[in-house]
Amino acid sequence: MKTKFLILVILLISTFAFGQPPVAKRDSLDYYKFQSEAQFDMVGDYATAIKWMNKAVRLDPMDDELYLQRAFAKGAIYDFRGQEADYSKVIALDGGNMAAYTGRAATRFILKKYREAISDYDWLIDVDPSYYGFFLSRGLCKWELKDKIGACNDYRQAAQMGSAIAYVLGMDNCLE
Question: pTM of the full predicted structure?
Answer without folding.
Answer: 0.82
